[in-house]
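FORM 7B - TANDEM STRUCTURE REPORT

SECTION 1: FIRST PROTEIN
SEQUENCE AND TOKENS:
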Amino acid sequence: MEYRQLGRSGLRVSVLTMGTMTFGGTGAFADVGTTDLDEAARQVDMCLDAGVNLIDTADVYSDGLAEEIIGQVLTRRRDRVLVATKVRMPMGADPNDAGLSRHHVISGCEASLRRLGTDHIDLYQVHEWDGQTPLEETLEALDLLVRSGKVRYVGASNYAAWQLTKALGIADRLGLPRFVSQQIYYSLQAREAEYELVPLAADQGLGVLVWSPLAGGLLSGKYRRNHQPPVGSRQLTDWDEPPVYDREKLYDTVEVLVSIGEQRGVSAAQVALAYLLGRPAVTSLVIGARTSEQLADNLAAASLTLTAAERAELDKASAQPLLYPYWHQAKTARDRLSPADLTLLGPHLPPGSAAP
């Protein structure tokens, strides 16, 4: 297992992170998975044995049940693993039971600590943007949690680039905790993060944790053109996360994944995960599985390295067009591009055309 620095922090995390959205399986989360305590313990041990040192969850997963299961599983394992959780989503009917107010951030942290059965959270992430709470208020609440020792590091999730940049600027100006990471959706099915979020991470020294790197299973090789989807599957039917805007491009990408996988004797899922691990700024992929067999297959991706030719095939099948102003910059600004610029524009430039 490889370990990478989480942004500019001193924390090192495994390139694969254990995701726990399947834990519990109550309410709407039953559609994702219904992992019970025994299976959760089995999967956690599999991850620890493979070298995974970060478990990611959120208070909203099964209304707190996922955190409770993790707390029980980690009773004798807590010192072997880092725990990340999130706050922002509704956790009750009261108008203050959601958002990123000082009230909800602090009360949410206290509740997560109780459910997790721990005295600290290693990475506390704001789960989603809250446009009605001043960023100063949110960051000051996070500062209080860090100073009290209840939180070690803070991160963001699902922010737009301008929102994240604004938060970083306020943190620097006021001496408040700086986000060390962003958790984002990024996969071969949807590479929009490459327009703004990946360059931002490279420029500002943010770690990138990727949620749903297999696009909710769409890149597993089970969804192919002219094939019936798996029995009981909701993908490409009434389940819209992640949304699919170009089904033909998805199928083209899956065919390349399957072809490379067959040539290498590995699954399409492993190829998709290995591709992301080789992308700029990516720190760790959050992997979750309904079964131990799926988890074992995903864990094997940590040791798979794709060739330049294989990566080029996948790039061609999944590439997105340059939007404005990027196509203009690729034509007229190539003499003064930064390393962050090149994470997006580099592949679109003629060889040797960019300034060193």
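SECTION 2: SECOND PROTEIN
SEQUENCE AND TOKENS:
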Amino acid sequence: MIIIDADIKNGKEEKVTEYYDDGSLKAEKSYIDGKLDVANTKVYASKTPIKDKGPEGVVEIVKVDKTEKSNSGNFNGDGQHKMYNANKQISKDGFFKKYRLIDGLLYQYNGNGILTRIKKYKEGRYIGDAPLPK
């Protein structure tokens, strides 16, 4: 199941499409020179209630060799990376494989740029929220 599909060129996002767990469209985000183009970004409400999945609901568990060297510089979709949003706030921090966050944290902010949630991922799936810093 694809949750995030991203077009990235020269280490910069150009278009990101996000999906809900049921496969329905969640958001279409456009970027200009790696920065979010808010005017051309669309967010969609879920068509079905979002349920917390247990282990039986896991579609795919991804295991990777974390001894692969960390990448520095441009994001090539694999290895240890820290990514930032257009406001220079951390958005993702962890180990990626084929542009997918496998093990790490995904940071979510409200419209005012205030951190509202930190989602933890392990073996390619959401496992719960991390506590917000005080």
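SECTION 3: OBSERVATIONS ON SECOND PROTEIN
The first strand starts at residue 4 and ends at 9.
Residues 50-72 have pLDDT under 50 and may be disordered.

SECTION 4: SIGNATURE
Preparer initials: ____
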